[in-house]
Specification:
With 248 residues, the protein is an alpha/beta fold. The protein has one domain: 3-Layer(aba) Sandwich (Rossmann fold). A 7-stranded mixed β-sheet has the order 3-2-1-4-5-7-6, sandwiched between helices. Bound molecules: S-adenosylmethionine. S-adenosylmethionine binds next to α5 and β2.
Amino acid sequence: MPVTEREPVSSRLMRALSRGPRPSSQRFEAPEVYGREAISRIARALPPVERVYANVRFSILRPKLLSVMDLLLPDAGRILDIGCGFGLFAAYFGQTQPARRIVGVDPDARRIAMAERVSEAVGLSASNRFVAGDARDVALEGTFAGAYVLDVMHHIPEQDQLPMLVRLRDLLAPRGVLVVKDITTVPAFGLEFTRLLDRVMVGWDEPLRYRHHREWGEMLASLGFHVRMVRVPDVLPYPHVVIAATKR
Ligand SMILES: C[S@@+](CC[C@H](N)C(=O)[O-])C[C@H]1O[C@@H](n2cnc3c(N)ncnc32)[C@H](O)[C@@H]1O
């Protein structure tokens, strides 16, 4: 067998350095952190009353918070939006990363019709899809690279919260990420401020079951997720928390 003489490390290193950086096919762009343009396109697609609601929602879910969620979600593939409402965030996250294909679910058929209209108006009718139904049992095909539940978990009755997280885990592909944005229970003033506004929106009969962020973390970890979380302070006293749960 011929003995090949190895080139010394120092000369291999010099040769590699003299080649310079490899040309990259990837283009790096940092668009506006907060998609102001994306938001105004969404608002323009809505009738007046819903437009006011959209402006309020986007002023509550401020730049930092949306950007945290945007970076946690996969930048491509099927993504589930649970409790999508008027489809504001399906239209937002679909515009910030156009390779996403978002499937929105909400039991309110009127909201679903509006969500379809908004996605169409911002040019996402081919990639976003909406289904009227309850996330606990609606028929959904295939798996998802990611899912988000934006201010919805506390509207789910207490006994159904864990089964719903189990269902979402089972709908995710391996390494899929579930992003839960909710309201934590501390400080108490922030919680009561939020509860009052939620009551104004949903009335007195609907369930509202908030949990401390540690409790959400423990539930998700017990389901086998790897969990990270961050609290996002705001000028208003909403105690926002964003939880990223990755399926192992
Ligand atoms: C506070 S709104 C949030 C809407 C939207 N995610 C947003 O952030 O603008 C809560 C939404 O959850 C929906 N929802 C309530 N129970 C649900 C369930 N079991 N399955 C799916 N959506 C549900 C409601 O219809 C409503 O649109």
